[in-house]
Amino acid sequence: MGIFFERMALVGLGLIGGSLARAVKERKLVGEVLCLGRSEERLRRAQEMGIIDRYAVEMGTILGDVDLIVVATPVGVIVELIKKMVPLLKKGTIITDVGSVKKKIVEKVEGFIPESLYFVGGHPIAGTENSGYEASFSTLFEGRKCILTPVDTTHQKALEKMKELWVSVGSHVVCMDSNEHDKVFAAVSHLPHIIAYSMVNSLLTIEGFEKNILSFSAGGFKDFTRIAASHPVMWMDIALMNKEHLLPAIELFQEYLDELKEAIRREDATKLLDEFQKSKRFKELMK
């Protein structure tokens, strides 16, 4: 398969960054994996584990001679980090990100990125409820989609290289408009997380519920708690950055929840059965 990039630098080393580092090293897609982070102790441990080859806590000491930069931080800081690193980079460096909100990031970065550098917005649709590189594994992206959000001015060779890299770690690459991306993921990802946080937190306020309530729950509620255990800072940033599409999704959900509430209040079995059958048919269509 061969080396795609001599040096790749990760900015942030959580689950996604750590898994990407493991994947490219295992497949020998990158000559050297560097990492920029805040905690030298954690970075040193990642180096000892063989996840990364070198690390730094200062931006200016590690980014000047890399071919690819992957920003794998919470979405709220991605734009400012890219803005700070731009003056330090050599001509032809490709910058990408892994954030699950794309429109604001793409628009802002495209507003200041110089012609000598290439930005390709990205979002691998992979993850677990666990965070941190300690939870990373090299097969995380296998069989998963990775969304790329190019614009009219995106450098085509840079885009092709990013497609090839993600395909090589097992992903199916889909190119999508950034606004369409945010609208889709507000519905299928961001809203479910908001619902899960609301569900779990609402139960915590019910008087008389013991801490061992989970011992009485079946798989359904445990799925909610698994989702609600996701990284709080990451999901706070996502909710605020994608409010344009997330708020309408929440409002639509509230309308349907109110309809079900009223059907239960009225003991309207026909309405309840119709809604439940509608959902069941949708699930069967997805098989």
In the sheet with the most strands, the strands line up as: 3-2-1-4-5-6
Question: Stretches where pLDDT falls below 50 for ≥5 residues?
Answer: none
**What is the H/E order?**
EHEHEEHEHEEEHEHHHHH
CATH topology-level fold name of the largest domain: Rossmann fold
Structurally, how many domains make up the residues?
2
Find the count of extended strands (DSSP E, 2+ residues).
Answer: 9
* Helical content (DSSP H or I, runs of 4+): 40-55%
Q: CATH architecture of the largest domain, please?
A: 3-Layer(aba) Sandwich
Mean pLDDT: 90
Specify the number of helices.
10
What is the strand content? 5-15%
Content-based structural category: alpha/beta
CATH class of the largest domain: Alpha Beta
* Major β-sheet annotation: 6 strands, parallel
* Rg, Cα atoms, Å: 21 Å
CATH superfamily of the largest domain: NAD(P)-binding Rossmann-like Domain
Termini separation comes to 34 Å
Overall geometry: elongated
Polypeptide structure, described:
It is a single chain. With about 290 residues, this protein is of the alpha/beta class. Helices cover about 50% and strands about 15% of the residues. The protein is built from ten helices and nine strands. It has helices spanning about 15-25, 40-50, 80-85, 105-110, 155-170, 180-205, 220-230, 230-240, 245-265, 270-285, and strands at about 5-10, 30-35, 55, 70, 95, 120, 120-125, 145-150, 170-175. The model has no long low-confidence stretch (mean pLDDT about 90).
